[in-house]
Amino acid sequence: MRRYGTILMALLLVLAVSCYVSAQSIEEWASRIKAELGGSEITCAFATHPSTEAFQAMTAEFEQLTGIKVNWDVMEETYLKNKQLMDFAGGSQLYDVLMVDGFWISEYAPKQVIVPLSKYINSDATPDWFDYEDIMPAYRNGIGAYEGEIYGIPTAGETRFVGYRKDLFEKYGKTPPETLDELLELAQFFTGREPNLYGIAMRAQRGIHFASGWLTITYNFGDGFLDQKTWEPLITSSGTVESLKYFIELMKCAPPDVATYTHEEAVSAFMAGRTAMWFDATALVSWILDPTKSQVYDKVGFVPPPSGPIGDAGVFAGWNMAIASGSKNKDAAWAFITYMTSRAKAKEYVLHGGVPTRTSVYQDPELVARDPSYPVQLASFERANALVERGLAWIPPTPELGKVLDRVGYWGNMALIGEITPEEACRRAQIELEDIIGQ
Amino acid sequence: MNSRSWTKVKRFLSALALVAVSVIAVFPFVYMVIVSLKPRVLTYDPSVWVFSPTFENYIAIFRQRNLLHFARNSFIVVLGTTLLSLALGSLAAYGFARFSFKKSESLAFWILSLRMLPPMATVIPFFIVARLLGILDTHIVLILAYMTFNIPFSIWMMRGFFEEIPREIEEAALVDGCSHWQVFLRILLPLSAPGLTATAIFCVIQSWNEFAFALFLTGVNARTLPTTVTFFLSVTGVIWGEMAAVGVVTALPVIIFAMLVQKHMIRGLTFGAVKQ
Amino acid sequence: MYILPAVTILVLLTLVPSVFLYYVSITDYELGQLWSTHKLIGFRNYHRLLSGRDFEFWPSVRISITFMLLATSIETVLGFAIALLLNQEFRFKSLVFGCLLMPITITPSIVGQMWKLMYNAEYGVLNYFTERLLGVKVAWLGPELAFLSTLMVDVWQWTPFVALIIYAGLRSIPSEPFEAALVDGANTVQSFWYITLPLIRPLLMLAVIFRSMDSLKLFDVPFVLTQGGPGSATELLSLHVYRLGFAQTGWVARAAATAVLLLVMIISLSRLLVRHIREGGSTV
User: Fold this and answer.
1) CA-only gyration radius of chain B, Å
2) Residue A19: per-residue pLDDT
3) Mutation site for A-interface testing, chosen from B63, B235, B240, B242 by largest number of A Cβ within 10 Å
4) DSSP H helical ranges for C106-251
5) How many beta-carbon pairs below 8 A join chains A and C?
């Protein structure tokens, strides 16, 4: 009994001490950091992204508060990945903080490009106002973790939903789609209904873009590309083949060169008023609603992703901040991450154009008033959660993911342009995937 | 009479062809200028030709994207690599053009074949070597990397031009008591000024616009202009206006340079002039 | 020796990358893998390519060669014509000159982006013209036309290069042969055929060599325009090398093997061309 008492006492003591540390204000935290790490320098390798711009806008204040100098190396995402991997493999140690796509975590973690973060998160030095738990759980587990360990702090999250032209739907007396069948019917209805009008725009360029577009609806038909327990390829399973057929049917209602579309062309076609619907990432909404960028900003509505033959599913994707394993300044890097991704700074970050991942942001009345799509985004998260309940991650967490998506997206795109049948595409993709997974 | 009207028709047709060629060559550039001046919302509407231009994009690339820093790097790298490549290349070209020796063809060919390595295949080894030498993210690494394609280019171009020049001119000079060096510097180089100019223009263009090495061998310090294009390929879409502005700003110095030096191509000394 | 400095530097600069390339092509190295963990696997990467287990290899070889042949011949013919046009006195010459240079001076990756914007079927400026003038909407980057559209950009961008090299050549031709020919009563066509062409031949061939080599390793523009798609319509070998070695897959070793085969192809091809010119050239 007394032993337990001692332990309890010790625990309470630790708790008290850590409360004392964690309850400090940003200023107190910053002055401590300044004393410990002031004068050090960190370099961030980030993708070109609205969130990056938001972080850059917040940098001056961080530098002033902590005395840590921040350098930015910003580039397009594919180059970013190559550069990060080269920096790691070549041991050049150029970078401290990395912006890492949720898709890359399962490759970076086993290669040890980035370091586990739980010891930093649980450290007493991490203040209360950082609040890891406030980040939506699906993001924490779905894009920032690998095999139970935390490797990245989700900074920019996205799910996908359907945008539609309210004016056109009213004019023809249509209601927004609830199911994928309705989505297809509507897309077919609007294609050619008016001059230069198509049903829908999505991404379908060969490679990862097609794979990503296809993944938007894959889980509504089956378990996706890979069995997430045994890592057997599932491309030839009936659900996945059906989903490809559906996706190709849907893309017949898209502009004729959709086979070269990335998210960029897809959203541009929608913003130029050329398609009645659009089914893509929530992170792009700020563009659609921006009068300086979009011709349809005042005519659009949004609905959650329609349900498919086997029910609801949805997307969880996004970006993390992580610490490069080659970094010589890991503590300064963590200080930077703490500050930039904290709950205390979340609102400021979103107001600078950053893409949110935190529950507190989605519940903030002022921010909700600013972006009318927030409630629909939340509803979309709920649908996406159905996938989590099925025990599936939208991004299959395998180190071979990049290869899988590249090959799957290649064969899918071949089927889209009619070079081969969808069944044949699935068969060939299956062969290549067995080869990749078997390695 | 007949022949004069024929000449007129010919002149007219060739003028027409020149105008057509120029328009086709220039149109995408002009469109880029238009995009760089258009407000963002109009980028996707090609039917709008008249609009009040915005200079926001230009202001943004200099203020926020710090374009001058990249321009400075580009300038240093291009200057270094072009001068070195031209000097070494034309010297070697002289050797190849005038002194045939055993295996000279094979050697010349080997040099040419170096240019064929796809940059994506050599960038990783370059990266590793540069790291070992500690020159990653400096101007030197890019100057050296660009010499791998500029020197072969200069050698082969200049060799072609040197060979066009009749040997007799040179031999006459040698008889007059000039050394090979003097022949090279005083006679061959000036005579092949059009070639030297053309070679210089293309060396400058190739290095000014090189992308793969520039991106992968540098960090924040020695980045050059072309790599800035990746700033504008945002996850949420292409930032067209700023990218087009960078395209315009990047192209201008080269165009100005080329237009300045092109008179050397036109006024290149002819052989008649030397003989007189 | 005049050649020595250049050769020494080239050897120093390229020895390591070439050796590395050959070496890595017989390993299983992947991007981001620690170098110490790679294994030698012999010629398995080559076997994989040649046996057709890499589905895209042979189609890309075919696409690359078709592209090279078309691009080089179109650019040479057009370039020659433009050089002849330039090679006369007229006003605004430096303006025309500047116009011609513009395509080459724009950074290739931005060129790709701009053409992608112009080619777009829905909001591109080319279709704005075709719809206005011809009443048709063209899917420039659709499966049927993507290859030709990519070719068109290359022709647009690199014909001036050929034109300027030939023009520089025309400019440095001595004038006596023509004067002599004029005295002999040769007409324009004859003096072009018997004097200009042979004299310009080495440079003409040089332009052909550079264009065929460069079009085989063309990367930036198709990468931005189509990413090799739709399907495999524009998957040039150089894109294929990149896709294998970088991007999402990171099979550096397999990419190296493909690059070595590409190199073998380019070298044997240009060897043929070079021999042809040098022998032809020596008879002049």
Assistant:
1) 23
2) 46
3) B235
4) 108-119, 125-133, 146-171, 176-184, 188-191, 197-216, 220-225, 237-245
5) 113
Q: CB-CB: which of C9, C113, C156 is closest to B88?
A: C9
Percentage of residues in chain B having pLDDT higher than 90:
25
Tens digit of each residue's pLDDT (9 = 90 or more) over A47-73: 988 899 899 999 999 999 999 999 999
Q: B-chain residues within 8 Å CB-CB of A299?
A: none
Q: Do B235 and A79 touch (CB under 8 A)?
A: no
CB contact under 8 A, B41 and A82: no
A85 with C226: Cβ contact below 8 A: no
Are B127 and A86 within 8 A, CB to CB? Answer: yes
H or E stretch at A402: helix A401-416
Fold of A160-313+378-383+390-438: D-Maltodextrin-Binding Protein; domain 2 (3.40.190)
**Least Cα separation, residue C243 to chain A (angstroms):** 9
The fold adopted by the segment(s) A23-158+317-363 is D-Maltodextrin-Binding Protein; domain 2 (3.40.190)
Determine the residue among B11, B179, B201, B266 to mutate to test chain C binding: the one whose Cβ has the most chain C Cβ atoms within 10 Å.
B266
Tokens of B220: 């924040």
Q: What is the ipTM of this complex?
A: 0.84
**Residues B76, B123 within the same domain:** yes
- Distance, CA of C9 to CA of B25 (rounded, Å): 37
Please state, in angstroms and rounded to a whole number, the distance separating the CA atoms of residues A254 and A274: 9
How far apart, in whole angstroms, are the C-alpha atoms of residue B143 and residue B81? 5
pLDDT digits (tens, 9 = 90+) for B155-178: 988 888 887 777 888 888 888 888
Same domain assignment for residues B163 and B126: yes
